[in-house]
Specification:
With 193 residues, the chain is of the alpha+beta class. The chain is 25% helix and 39% strand. The strands form two sheets. Strands 1, 2, 3, 4, 5, 8 and 9 form a seven-stranded mixed sheet that branches. A two-stranded antiparallel sheet has the order 6-7. Strand 2 and strand 3 (51-53) form a beta hairpin.
Length: 193
C-alpha cells in the first residue's frame, strides 16, 4: 500500500474524529405526556449554580442561553408567551461550571529523539541513576446546561435535556458549542412514542 495513501486516510480519520467531538447531550421525557397538545411556552426562571435568577437578571450570558432555547422551541412550532398568558410549557434552565483536575504521569522523562534521559542523584560520594517521571496536572472546566420543560397545568416535568462539555478559553467558541448542544438536544423533539 502506498504510504502517502495511508497517511491521507489517517489524516481524514483524525479530522473526522475531531469534528465529531463536542458536547455530550442526554435527553429524557415522560412517555405519558401528550406533546402534540403543547403550543406555547414561557420561561419560568434560570438557576445558576444554586442561585435563582429571575426575569430581572438580563446579563448577556443568560440572555444568549435563553435565545438559544427560544430559537429551538420556535423552530418546533411553539410560540412564546408571558407567564400570565398560561403557557402550555414552563421552561426552566440550570447551568454551571465545575472545575476538574486531571493528573497524568508520563513515566520516564523523554530526551532527544525519544530516548529516555537518565537522571542521577549524588549519594555517599557517588552518582547513582534514579528513575524519574513527570507528573502533569490539567485543569478542565466542565460546563453543564439543563433544559427542563414542565407541563404548566400539572407542574410536572415532561422533558429534560442535559448538555455537558469541556469549556475552552474562547467565550465565542464556548457559545458555539452550547448552541450545537442545544440544537442536538432538540433534534428529536417532540419525542416519538
Amino acid at each position: 500500500m502506498n504510504i502517502r495513501f495511508l497517511i491521507a486516510w489517517l489524516a481524514l480519520g483524525l479530522l473526522a474524529a475531531v469534528g465529531c467531538m463536542g458536547p455530550k447531550v442526554i435527553t429524557d421525557f415522560d412517555p405519558s405526556a401528550e406533546f402534540s397538545a403543547f403550543r406555547t411556552f414561557a420561561f419560568s426562571g434560570m438557576t445558576d449554580r444554586g442561585y435563582e435568577s429571575g426575569e430581572s437578571d438580563n446579563s448577556p450570558l443568560r440572555r444568549r442561553i435563553i435565545e438559544m432555547v427560544e430559537e429551538q422551541l420556535a423552530a418546533k412550532g411553539l410560540r412564546q408567551v408571558s407567564l400570565e398568558d398560561r403557557p402550555d410549557l414552563l421552561v426552566h434552565l440550570f447551568f454551571g461550571v465545575k472545575d476538574e483536575q486531571r493528573v497524568q504521569n508520563t513515566g520516564m522523562t523523554p530526551g532527544f529523539y525519544g530516548r529516555h534521559v537518565e537522571t542521577y542523584a549524588y549519594h555517599d560520594g557517588g552518582w547513582t541513576p534514579v528513575k524519574s517521571s513527570r507528573v502533569t496536572t490539567y485543569e478542565d472546566h466542565e460546563g453543564t446546561l439543563i433544559v427542563d420543560l414542565a407541563e404548566s397545568s400539572k407542574k410536572e416535568l415532561v422533558w429534560r435535556a442535559v448538555i455537558r462539555a469541556v469549556l475552552g478559553d474562547s467565550l465565542e467558541k464556548n457559545f458555539e458549542m452550547a448552541n450545537k448542544g442545544v440544537a442536538k438536544a432538540f433534534e428529536a423533539y417532540p419525542p416519538a412514542k
